[in-house]
Design goal:
This protein has 410 residues and is an alpha+beta fold. It contains 14 helices and 20 strands. Bound molecules: zinc ion (2 copies).
Length: 410
């Protein structure tokens, strides 16, 4: 468990570095009822730094499961008007959103997949406008994480629930730099470092990134035309920066989906819909997967790779050094916020329009012309081993070392 001071420092990170709340702003905290204690600390912190009003949006994962088991498919696809109105209020009032992502990765185990899909599609559809408001940075938002019992137990199955929660707090405290004298300062410094590296990558405008290691990875990833490397802070539409993911360690951009060649071997297991896929390798030619093997979870890998055409190419390349605190923890969190930040990764499927210049205003056709990959899927898989060497190759053939033995050299 953290000290009260550490909890307050953590809340300050969410309010000031994450959502970057401004004086007089309304704040919405969205979290599971299990996280109420920490939500209270965030609310007090928001008022301390000048929030006009703090609004709560409670969730309850256990009730979510009870609903999924008890309600009919029809009932689950009707989204109540007042929930949509609530989201519209958030948009109109330009609130800043602080979400606490914490939950049992297995909460829906045994529920009807057909019902779950129908319910999630109905909600996605009903909340389209709200999602656009967050994806286009009309609202400033952030996600942080704290342990819950069921989740901690999944991460540390050999411990009892209480010990598992303690152990996870300890890990999160280190990852969130709460064990430093001034975490807010430590994060500003960390974000500066990420930005400096992103600038370096953008200034070189590399044609290819080459990844090589002793597991047999030897891959050339061409980058999308006019690609942009992004990291940490994004710009709100109001010109105020914010950091959507806390923690964040990655610097990422879009591959060119017709310029990927070679072989890549995974570095960590890929957990997808409760399936573990491991010891796998993928071969690419001209941007497409031409062959794949997996010693563990081959069928699950095949399920991913047969979703649509676009899933056979890549939508993201992200670079993370082996000395980042998440990587050093060696913990598999079963939660994207952490796991995606533990190792260099690639993603099968869709690219982010923000990773190409002017991408938010482009049509699907224009994006495709830049080599931006499109798919229903976006599945990250980890490739950054402790010995990985990564080079950038410019259009005139100059080779610039970026990673040596799993860590940044720039
Ligand atoms: Zn990523
Ligand atoms: Zn990703």
């Amino acid at each position: 468990m953290l000290t009260q001071q550490q909890l307050e420092n953590f809340a300050e990170l969410a309010v000031r570095v994450g959502a970057n709340m401004q004086r007089g702003q309304e704040v919405v905290i969205r979290c599971d009822v299990q996280c109420a204690d920490f939500a209270h600390v965030i609310a007090q912190t928001a008022y301390k730094f000048g929030a006009k009003r703090v609004l709560m949006q409670w969730r309850d994962e256990v009730l979510g499961r009870i609903d999924m088991l008890g309600a009919s498919k029809e009932a689950l696809t009707e989204v109540p008007d007042y929930l949509i109105a609530q989201n519209n209020y958030y948009i109109q009032h330009k609130v800043c959103l602080i979400s606490i992502s914490a939950g049992d990765p297995n909460i829906m185990k045994g529920c009807d997949p057909d019902k779950m899909k129908a319910s999630s599609l109905a909600n996605m559809h009903a909340n389209k406008e709200f999602r656009n408001a967050t994806m286009s940075n009309l609202l400033r938002w952030t996600i942080v994480s704290i342990p819950t019992k069921a989740w901690a137990k999944q991460v540390f199955p050999q411990l009892d629930a209480e010990q598992a929660v303690d152990k996870m707090w300890e890990a999160i405290a280190h990852i969130m730099r709460l064990d430093t004298p001034n975490p807010t300062e430590a994060w500003r410094k960390h974000i500066d470092t990420l930005h400096r590296r992103a600038r370096f990558l953008n200034e070189h405008n590399f044609e290819y990134i080459r990844l090589r290691n002793s597991r047999g990875t030897d891959l050339r990833v061409g980058l999308a035309t006019d690609h942009v490397w992004l990291a940490a802070e994004e710009m709100g539409q109001d010109g105020i920066p914010f950091t959507a993911n806390m923690p964040t360690e990655e610097i990422f951009t879009a591959p060119h989906n017709r310029k990927i060649d070679g072989k890549v071997v995974n570095a960590l297991p890929l957990v997808n819909n409760g399936n573990v896929i491991d010891d796998f390798e993928i071969t690419f030619k001209d941007g497409r997967v031409t062959d794949y093997k997996a010693k563990v979870g081959y069928d699950a890998l095949r399920n991913i790779l047969t979703t649509d055409e676009g899933v056979l190419s890549l939508g993201e390349i992200a670079l993370i050094g082996k000395h980042s605190p998440i990587a050093e923890s060696g913990i598999l969190f079963y939660n994207t916020l952490f796991d995606e930040n533990a190792s260099c990764h690639l993603a099968f499927g869709a690219s982010y329009p923000t990773t190409v210049k002017g991408g938010n205003e482009m049509t699907a056709q224009q994006l495709a012309a830049h080599g931006m990959n499109q798919s229903l899927q976006h599945v990250d898989f980890m490739v950054g081993t402790k010995d990985i060497d990564i080079d950038g190759i410019t259009f005139d053939g100059k080779v610039v070392a970026l990673f040596k033995d799993g860590e940044w050299v720039i």
